Here is the input.
Amino acid sequence: MVNPYLEGNFAPVLEERTDEHDLETTGVVPPDLEGRLLRNGPNPVSVPADPTDYHWFLGDGMVHAVGLAHGRATGYRNRWVRTRKLAGQVATVPPKGPHEPIDGPANTHVIRHGGTTLALVESGFPHALSPGLDRARVHDFDGSLSSPMCAHPKVDPDTGELVFFGVDPFGPPFLRYHVADRAGELTSTVEVAVPRATMMHDFGLTSTRAVFLDQPVVFDLALAAEGRALPFRWMPEVGSHLGVLPRDGDGDSVRWVSMDPSYVFHVVNAYDDGDRTVLDVIRYDAAFETGPGEAVTACAASLARWTVDPAAGRVHEERIDDTPVEFPRIDPVVAGRRHRYAYTVQAGPDPRHPSYEALLKYDLVRDEAVRFDPGAHRFPGEPVFVRAADGAGEDEGWVLSVVYDATRGASDLVILDATSFAGPPVAVVHLPARVPFGFHGSWIPSDS
Here is the structure.
C-alpha cells in the first residue's frame, strides 16, 4: 500500500536545524513584522514500519519557527515537541509536569497566551515550550485541567480570555468547557452533558456564547480495543447537534438544536445575530467513513454558513462556495464578532489524494473570492493573518503562508499584502529546509 501521508511533502524530515543567520529573501519583509511565525504539524520521528495504519493525524509534533525583525528574516529552526513518547529519542529526559490521562503527540497547533507558548493536540494536555523550542513541560494550568484540551482555543479580543473545551473519551462527563484569564490562570470549568464522546475538533465562540459541534464521528471503544490508531466511526444515525451555551452559563444552560448529519473540522468564525448565532464553517458531508491509513473523508469540504436559532429549534444552512477549501483563518481582532474576510487554502479536488493548490481570500460582504496562485510546483499551507501596525481595516495587514517549492525540495515563507491578495508577494523568504505539510500556526509578536 502506498500511503499518501508518507510521500512528497507529507513525508517527515528527520533532522532538527538551527539556522541563526539572515535568510535569503526576495522582496522586502514588512518592517512592522517583528516576531516569529510558529507552525506545528505531524512529523514522525521514524517512518512507521507498517505504513498501512499510519495517518497524518498521528505523527509526532514538530514546531517550525521563522524569525522576522527589522525588515529581514533573521533565522529558522525546527524542533520536535518533547513529549513523553519521545523521551529517549529526541530528548534524554521526559518533560516535566503531570502525567497526561492520554499521551497526545502535541502536533496540531501552537499558540502563545499569558506569556506561555503552548503546543496543542485535542487528545492530550498542552505542552509549554521553551523559547528555543528545545524543552517542554506538560501544562495542566496548575492542576486545574483534568482532561484533554482542544487544539482550537479562542482568544477574546476584548478581554484577552482564552476560551476552550476538552473531550474526555472515557467520561462522563465527556465534554468540559473552560476559561482562562488574560494571565493564563484557569478561572472556570463547566461540565456539559453529552451522551457519548464524539470528535469535536473545533467550536464557535461569540462575544456572548459558545457553540459546541456534537457530530456523528463517534469514539468507538471496540476499535480502540483492536488497537486502531484512530478509533472513530462515522455513525450518522446518532445525528448532528449544535449546543449553544451562554459564556457565563452552567451546564444546564445549553440549548441543543438538531440538524442534518455532516462534519466540520474547522469553524471560520462565529458571531451573534440577535437571538441567533451565525457560524461560518468548512463543511464535509461525512468523515471517518474510510479505512485505516486512508484519508478520513472521501468528499471535499467547502465554505458554508450555519445560522442557529434555538428558539425555533432549527439550523439554517447556506452553501457559500463549492470550491474545496480548508485551514480557514481571519483577523484575530474580529474573532467572535461579525467578520467580512476569511482566508483559506484551496485544496485539490480529490481528498483521497490530498494536495493544496492556492490560497483564497473570501469577501463575505461582496460575495466574491480572490485567488493567490503560488506558481508551478509550489504548494501553500495555512494562511495566517497579521494586522499591520497602522492597519485600521479588517484586511489591512499581511498574510503569511509556508509554501513548499518542489523544484528545490525546500519551503518558502510567502508574505502577501492582504489588500492586494492576488500578488505578487511583498516578500518570499527562502527557508533552508523543507517544512512538511502541517496543520496550524500563530504569529508571535516579539513583545508578547
Observations:
- The chain has a mean pLDDT of 95.
- The first strand starts at residue 18 and ends at 19.
